[in-house]
């Protein structure tokens, strides 16, 4: 299956540009959210290097952000770059559980490969990689049981329709859980 970021740009903009005055755009080195600078210009979700997975991840953050947060640069969140201390890494992982769970569901809906990201290659690494994976899984399972936030559900439904994965999602999800969190069966969800 071909996974072009241009498809995500088209799908996102068709779904949200008019209603939320937000556009998905290809960017350079770093992803970034830029709130609308005027009533004539839309907000921009800028994803890094034109990577498909980066677009899904940034869309996940946008789908979680409330109305006020969408008026702030990068939703008003702190970002500590690569090289975090263990304490900083734990804080990072706590705020990344929900967007990574959402990104994972979007990835499976699109038939693309998802990778957990601790985003700390030159630091002391993840605080507890297995625990982080399990927490992302728990959150994704909760979204599946209780439903995604409204904008996320709309995008998820659009992905399953566009990629034709609606009928096969459940099986693909179980297979991907076994790949991403192979030890999940040892724990209770």
Question: How does the SSE layout of this entry go?
Answer:
Layout: H1 5-20, E1 22-26, E2 32-34, E3 43-47, H2 52-64, H3 86-110, H4 129-146, H5 150-163, H6 169-180
Parallel strand pairs: 1-3
Antiparallel strand pairs: 2-3
Helix pairs in contact: 1-2, 2-3, 3-4, 3-5
Note down, in words, how this protein is organized.
The protein is mainly alpha-helical and 189 residues long. It has 2 domains: 5-76, no CATH class; 86-186, no CATH class. 52% of the residues lie in helices and 7% in strands. The protein contains 6 helices and 3 strands; from the N terminus they run H-E-E-E-H-H-H-H-H. Strands 1-3-2 form a 3-stranded mixed beta sheet. Helix 3 packs across helix 4 and helix 3 crosses helix 5 (150-163). It is globular.
Which features characterize this protein?
189 residues; mainly alpha; 2 domains; three-stranded mixed sheet; 3 strands; 52% helix; 7% strand; globular
Summarize the structure.
By secondary structure, the protein is mainly α. The protein has helices at residues 5-20, 52-64, 86-110, 129-146, 150-163, 169-180, and strands spanning 22-26, 32-34, 43-47. A hairpin with an 8-residue loop joins strand 2 (32-34) and strand 3 (43-47).
Q: What percent of residues are in strands?
A: 5-15%
Calculate the terminal CA-CA distance, rounded to whole Å.
Answer: 31 Å
Q: Evaluate the radius of gyration.
A: 16 Å
How are the strands of the largest sheet arranged? 1-3-2
By DSSP, the count of extended strands is: 3
SS-based structural class? mainly alpha
Query: On the 0-100 scale, what is the average pLDDT?
Result: 88
Largest sheet features: 3 strands, mixed
- The poorly predicted ranges are none
Number of helices: 6
Along the chain, the helix and strand elements come as: HEEEHHHHH
Helix content, binned percent: 40-55%
Q: Any idea what the shape is? A: globular
